[in-house]
């Protein structure tokens, strides 16, 4: 059973930065796609940024130009560098990994952007 552990959330002022990390419990498992999702109360979980095994990246319009997703395939880790944070970025962020064996989720890490 693969587990994803996401971390790096916290409270930051508007305009600040945070870097989220996601680590897989097994380094020899390959994911076809990995992504960061976020969710606020009473709303559906939304894809913020994704990256496939070829390194192709995708960003939602709301974070394009501010967030950068990256992967360390050797160590099976994924990161989300978040800059110029806004109050509307406040949410629980979840890492996700998908392959032919399943769809895996981290436990979530809270990001709060507030002055």
Structural commentary:
The structure is a single chain. With 115 residues, this protein is mainly beta. The chain has strands at 4-7, 10-12, 18-24, 33-39, 46-52, 57-59, 67-72, 77-82, 91-99, 102-105, 109-113. The strands form two sheets. Strands 2, 4, 5, 6, 9, 10 and 11 form a seven-stranded mixed β-sheet that branches. The N and C termini lie far apart (40 Å).
At a glance:
0% of the residues lie in helices and 53% in strands.
End-to-end distance: 40 Å
Q: Structural class of the secondary structure composition?
A: mainly beta
Number-wise, the strands total 11
**Average pLDDT:** 94
The biggest sheet, with number of strands, parallel, antiparallel or mixed sense and barrel status, is: 7 strands, mixed
Strand-residue proportion: over 45%
Shape: globular
Percent of residues in helices comes to under 10%
| Unreliable spans | none
Number of helices: 0
What is the chain-wise order of helices and strands?
EEEEEEEEEEE
Rg computed from alpha carbons, rounded to a whole number of angstroms: 13 Å
């Amino acid at each position: 059973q693969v587990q994803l552990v996401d971390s790096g959330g916290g409270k930051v002022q508007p305009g600040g930065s945070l870097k989220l990390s996601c680590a897989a419990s097994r380094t020899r498992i390959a994911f076809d796609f990995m992504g960061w999702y976020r969710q606020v109360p009473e709303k559906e979980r939304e894809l913020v940024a994704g990256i496939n095994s070829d390194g192709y990246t995708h960003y939602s319009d709301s974070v394009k130009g501010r967030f950068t997703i990256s992967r360390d395939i050797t160590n099976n880790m994924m990161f989300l560098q978040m800059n110029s944070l806004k109050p509307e970025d406040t949410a629980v962020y979840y890492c996700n990994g998908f392959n032919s064996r399943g769809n895996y989720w981290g436990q979530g890490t809270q990001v709060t952007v507030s002055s």
